[in-house]
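User: For my dataset I need records formatted as: sequence, then structure tokens, nothing else. Please produce one.
Assistant:
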Amino acid sequence: MKSNKNMFQEFLNQIMEEKSFGPEDLAKLTHVPLKHILALKEAKFEELPANVFVKGYLLKIAKVLNVDFEELWNLYLEDYNKLAMPKPDILPSNRFEQSKKVTHHLLKILRYIPILAVIITVIGFIFLQSKNLFGEPKLKVTTPAFETIETTDNPFVVEGEGQPHSYITINNKEIYLSDDGKFSEPIQLKEGLNEVIIEATNRAGKTKTITRKIYYQNPTPSPSVSPIVKTPLSSPLTHTITPSPIFSPASTPFNSASPIFSPLD
């Protein structure tokens, strides 16, 4: 960077000499770092921070030196644009070495991915098994689906699903599960309200109970007996006597003293 005097540098140094301000005095009054005051005096713009900060510095310096800020700022920008060169984008000399290091680290991470996958799988399996062992056993009743129902079926089939290798009972009677964990068990119902208790117990002794209430009504009621009608004792009995056609009262005189047949000799 060129350090020959320019308009901004000449103007700033001239004003500081006229006001008898040294760099230390100006730094103390403006609270601008001394190194930045020296960089402005020598036009070493590459040692200054971003222009947004330089503008604030020049505003404080202009107030202390009692000069026009806009004039000072414009002189700075004019010289800055002439002298300041854009910094070349220089890649580090070891960029290829860094790339190799990144690739090496990635390969190292990829090498451990299968091991991490196995560890995660084992942890997940242990978690599920512990949940099945120490948690509440699985139990679901599909028929009857509702808590209270009415039916005319007897026997009634209770259906549902449980956890394999668990102990399931219906009204204290053990039932057996299929390979997929489902069960279907007929039960005998009595007339009226029946309470059906389905209970599952796992190996850890944890239980789950589901209760269903089934109201059974017999569709074929018992035959009714007709009531016996009794005749009142006070009713008079009437009897009709019909005379025999053998005898005719009009043609045969009846003698109560003589017999009807004559005795045999």
